[in-house]
Every structure is written in structure tokens, then in C-alpha cells.
């Protein structure tokens, strides 16, 4: 263990801090270290500062990681804790995702004071979501529903819902649980009808390549099963050049030595969708991910997303 505190970089939202604290607590338990052995470093990202526009209009996923990755490269922090679903498929040179914590519930949660499920909402109801994937899937299942942009951190969205700004919203079940807000969930959307975002429910840790001391520290809390699933999902997303500007869902599951990946691509208005899946040995996770991505590219043809 290094003599100086290990500096953990994170965004400053309540959820991001909960994820950083979970990472620190796991490292403390794994190595019998005190809290003094760690320092939480809060870094404000471009994505945190832009609240008046959809992120899809100003640059996509990298907005939540750019400043944190700069701090990693400058050695102002030693590791960065991220929500895997926020991570671009291409990382800056010299950085890598070097550990994953055990994955939480991957499902989307439905929250509403007016209906028990998305299906039960009255015709013409208003649902708030900032995710193009959720917007497209809602419109796919309920074309009659009005979907409006709904930005802000998790607490802000809950407040808006309680004030009646919308009739319902969808949030990641994992985030609500990590903040002890599970009671806010009205119902859960099953993955058979509502495929989650790539990486949803998984915390990843980014560090500098070649930093062997940090890698050795992280190895004790690394979850191999989550990594294999994310290897497949991120390879799938990379083929489709996916970002938060693209309505894409994808989920890998592992049963014994077999990995199965299901993927979906939708038009932004939900009017058309293409699905694909593939299975194979877990050792071929990335190949399986790429094959599903290539199959979907063939199925949807050129210009599919631009026509939405």
C-alpha cells in the first residue's frame, strides 16, 4: 500500500459520491485499511454544468468523464469511479477500465403517483426522461404518451415528479437502491420488454495503464463476471458507434460458461426497432458483442437512425 492516501476521483452528485464511497469501503475491507488511507476528490464535469439542454446536443457521454480523466492523466487523482453506462467506448490513451464492482439490478424503474406501470398510464400522459433510449422505448410501447426532456440529478427529478411536472419518469433501479431510495420505485420494467442501457447497474474504475501498485490494490475488489458482461456490451456498442445520441439497449448475461448478449436499436420516435442476440463461451465476450452489433448494422441499414 502506498504511503499517501489513494485519491479517488468522482463527480459530486449524491449518486456519484455513493459509488465512490462504496469503492472506498470495499478497498478498506479488502485490505484492512482505515478511511484515512483514502481521499475522495470531487471533480465537476462539463455534463454536470450543462443543465438546460439535452447532452445529445452538446457532445454526449464524454461530458461526464473528460475532466476526471484529465485529472487521472495529470496524476491529480489515482483512480476514477464511474457509472459504466456513462463511459465512452474509446478511452484516452494511457487510461483503462481496470476494475468492476459486482453489478446491481440492471432494470429501469417506473416511478409515478398516478399509475402502477407504464401500461397503466392514461392516454396522453406525460413522461419525463432525458435518455434517448428510454424515450424511444416508451414511444415504442406507448405511442400515445408524450415524452418530455427531463434533466437534473436524481433528487431533482424526484422533486419534479412530486410537484406534478410530469405524470411519471423512469430511472435506473440501481441508482435508487444505492441511495436508499428503493421505496420510490412504483414498479420495475422487465428486460424482456425494456432492455437497459449498456453498462447499466455497473460501477467501473478507471486508472492509468502501467500503475501496477494501484492495479494490485484494485484486484481485490474486482468482479470478473461483471467485467466479462461489460466486455461484450461495450464491444457491441463500439460497433454501432453508440453514445447518448443513439437509442440503443444491450445486456449480456452469463450462465455457467456461456455468455448471451441481446441488443436493440430503435428509431428515436420508437416507430421501428431491430433486435439481435448471440451466445458463446465467456472467453469470447468481445467477439459475441461485435457480432450482435454487426448483425444489427446489417438489419437496420444505412441512415436508419437519421430518419427517426
Description of the structure:
This protein is an alpha/beta fold. Helices cover 31% and strands 23% of the residues. It has nine helices and 13 strands. The model has no long low-confidence stretch (mean pLDDT 92).
Task: Record keyword descriptors for this entry.
alpha/beta; five-stranded mixed sheet
Draw up the topology in text:
Layout: E1 6-10, H1 14-31, E2 38-42, H2 46-49, H3 66-73, E3 79-83, E4 95-100, E5 108-111, E6 126-128, H4 132-141, E7 146-148, H5 154-162, E8 168-172, H6 173-178, E9 187-189, E10 203-208, H7 212-219, H8 224-239, E11 248-255, E12 258-266, E13 273-281, H9 285-300
Parallel strand pairs: 1-2, 1-3, 6-7, 6-8
Antiparallel strand pairs: 3-10, 4-10, 5-8, 5-9, 11-12, 12-13
Instruction: Give the helix proportion (percent range).
Output: 25-40%
Quaternary state, please? single chain
Summed up, the helix count is 9
Shape: globular
Q: What is the ordering of alpha helices and beta strands? A: EHEHHEEEEHEHEHEEHHEEEH
In whole angstroms, the N-to-C terminal distance is 52 Å
- Give the strand order, joined by hyphens, for the main sheet: 2-1-3-10-4
Summed over residues and divided by their number, the pLDDT gives a mean of 92
Radius of gyration, in angstroms, nearest whole number: 19 Å
| Beta-strand content estimate | 15-25%
Structural class: alpha/beta
Main beta-sheet annotation: 5 strands, mixed
The low-confidence parts are none
Per DSSP E runs of 2 or more residues, the count of β-strands stands at: 13
